[in-house]
Amino acid sequence: MTEILSLIRSHGCPSWSRTVLNSDRMPWFSTRLGLESALSYPPPRLLTCHLPKHIFPKSFSHSSAKVIYTLRDPRDVVVSYYYFSKMCNSYEDPTSFEQFLRDFLNGELPHGSWFEHVRGWMEMKDAENFFFITYEELKQDLRSSVRRLCQFLGEDLDDDAISSVVQNSSFTAMQENPMCSSILLPADIMDQTKGRFLRKGICGDWKNHFTVAQSETFDRIYQDRMQGLNMTFPWDRH
User: Fold this and answer.
1) What's the pLDDT score for residue 142?
2) Rounded to an integer, what distance in angstroms lies between the CA atom of residue 146 and that of residue 231?
């Protein structure tokens, strides 16, 4: 999403995305350095975070800011998070996938419970300044997704600009772009010998990692924790 929004802001021109680190283009304002960067930028700013709604800045409720919330099949989230934790030195190296999955389901990993995170933000699903989209939708039809994002942001991009956004935010393009592939980060932050930050970018990779028992346990807990939300996501239909 960082690449998509960077390219939309640049009206499809990829030069900004190819010359400035994604963390500088879209600072993590929940960190001290990210907040300092964010405050130094002229508006409109692109900002990013993993904050749950209940600790999101209260000033948002009376500002002109907009939130774009991206979510993904939680089973694929677990797999991606597992490999990321192995690479990122600020995270504890997982002892096993089985233990990592258990911690995820119990909400005991950094950033807390996926279920509570989604339920909290979905309280805003009907707000005019809130837009949510799934990774699965982006993968299925990126062009239509970009058009929807442009409409939400009030950005009028022509067909050529839309095509450039789609081309330069593809998984292959991002893998080849050192500004978003994390290969420029020092080894004491991201250990590239333990994997790739942009690993596969596919939907359904969880099927290559979950046992039948783990899948059944996950489904049971998912149904219980998401009960009453009254929303259907792409992964609920498979």
Assistant:
1) 96
2) 22
DSSP state of 70: E
Which residue is catalytic, options 50, 54, 111, 209?
50
Residue 210, SS3 per DSSP: coil
State the pLDDT confidence band at 226, using cuts at 50, 70 and 90. very high
For tokens 């919330």, name the residue: 69
Sign for the pseudo-dihedral over CA of 36, 170, 5, 152: negative
Q: Which two tokens stand for residue 97?
A: 């996938």
Q: How far is CA 119 from CA 7, 30, 229, in A?
A: 29, 20, 7
Q: CA 184 to CA 200: how far, in whole Å?
A: 19
Is residue 54 part of the annotated active site? The answer reads no
List, in sequence order, every residue forming a beta bridge with 228; answer none if it has no partner. none
Amino acid letter, 83: Y
Contacts of residue 200, defined as CB under 8 A and 6 or more positions apart, other chains included, come to none
202, pLDDT greater than 90: no
pTM of the model: 0.90
